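Bench notes, afternoon.
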Amino acid sequence: MNDAELREGLVEAAYLEGDFLLRSGKRSRYYLDKFRFETRPDLLGAIGERIAAIVREHEPAAVRLAAPVLGAVPLAAAASLAGGLPFVIVRDEAKAYGTANRLEGAFAEGELVCLIEDIVTSGGALVESISALREAGLVVRTAVCVIDREEGGADALARQAVRLRPLFRAGELLSAEKTPAKPHG
């Protein structure tokens, strides 16, 4: 699947119009439903390959991926399978039973991880994940997301000394949504 086909597939699967309240607290006339692309093997596989390629290119020393629950976990699993790096899962808070971990999966203090996310708006969820990873002694310099909504998330991460690397920006997807699809071939 080439970039144009993936972009078209994401828009077709996940783009919804209406009045939506985002996690950031903002309202939006459109919504990109991550579960609609993360549950499709054709799109998930292609996304995993692209995330793995971006990690190899922009954070080649990373030894592990990191994914906040819930939406980023399938992405990290797909990227892990495509690129061979293991991953940890970042919970919203430490669980109150069993191991009482906030980070799930094996890791060693001082390791460089690359953070994976589905859709970034304000960056608030990623900033929380960066804090949890750093508190556990992990190093985070790069985050890869499928879609950057271009609403301040990259700046919020930059303030944490983390560079955001999106597969797509919302502007690209929205211009694709407004442009009639061209026939393939």
